Each structure stands twice: as C-alpha cells, then as structure tokens.
Amino acid sequence: MAEQISSLSELELIKQVPAAADQAAPVYVQKLDTQGRAYATGKRKNAVARVWVKPGSGKITVNDKDFSAYFARPVLQMILRKPIVAGNRDGQFDIIATVIGGGLSGQAGAVCHGIAKAMTHYEPALRAVLKKGGFLTRDSRVVERKKYGKAKARRSFQFSKR
Asked: Which of 44, 83, 105, 114 could form a disulfide with 109 if both were Cys (CB 3.0 to 4.6 A apart)?
C-alpha cells in the first residue's frame, strides 16, 4: 500500500521529479522528397488538394494552370495566398497543386491548407506563425446530409391544413 504523507515537507520531496524533461516541446524537422520538394495534403469541405513546395520565383500552379486563371475571383486568390503572406515568403517558393472535389471556394481553402502544411514541412521555423494564424487547422465543417421526409437537411415541406 502507498505510504501516507504527514507534512508538507514530505510532499515537496515527492514532488521534486523533473517535470521539464517530461514536457519538452516537440522538435520539427524538415521533410523533403528526393527532388527537394515538401509535400502536404490540404482539405476543406469535399475538396482535397495535393501540394508541393520548392524554392523558386513564386510561381503558383493549380491543376496545370496559373492560379489566377484557375481561381478567377480575387477573393479566392487572396485566400490561396494568405499563408505565403503570413510567413513573409512571397516570391520565394514555387507551388504546384492538384485539387479535386468540391467547389471553387472549398478548393481554394484546401490549397491554402496544403500550402501552409507544406511550408512547415519545408521550413519548420514557420510553424509558429502559421499555427497562430490558424492555417494549419483543418476546417472540419461540411454540408449536413439530407434526411428522409425533409426537403433538405432540416427544411420541411410546406404545411397546409387543407
């Protein structure tokens, strides 16, 4: 059976286990493929993006098109560039992305998520900035499924007394 503690001094003796060694911060290392690129997968709604980041002139390609041609709306282009601007790496990385599923908004969010993750794989020092900006967290909100007996997920059919 465990021994009983009768005073505070005995409690302090038991408590003096090095807690700092147990709670050490994880060390993140650079993860590159054989061609010197960092790879990550980004997701948003039903869209999935595969993203490769390598050092370059700042060219962003999505599904073999320039990102400004693929995402024509300026809002989507801004969403896509947010992690690059937050990390002060504008014009330093070439980014290649392939994205499938969902609509344009979800695809832009998926590429944004993938870029942020790939940038942390390439340069682990950026993790703190991107984590604080919320770019590394996957937005898990998806469309609620339709239920039987309903017009949509929650919308009922119009009711009439007659």
From this structure: 44
Task: Tell me the per-residue pLDDT of 78-132, one tens digit each, with 9 for 90 and over.
Answer: 999 999 999 999 999 999 999 999 999 999 999 999 999 999 999 999 999 999 9
Model pTM score: 0.80
Using CB atoms within 10 Å of the CB of residue 122, give its burial: 0 to 12 exposed, 13 to 18 middle, 19+ buried: buried
Give the whole-angstrom CA distance, residue 110 versus residue 100: 9
Q: Is 107 exposed, middle or buried (0-12, 13-18, 19+ CB in 10 A)?
A: buried
Handedness of CA 128, 122, 104, 59 (dihedral sign): positive
Chain position carrying tokens 């590429």: 111
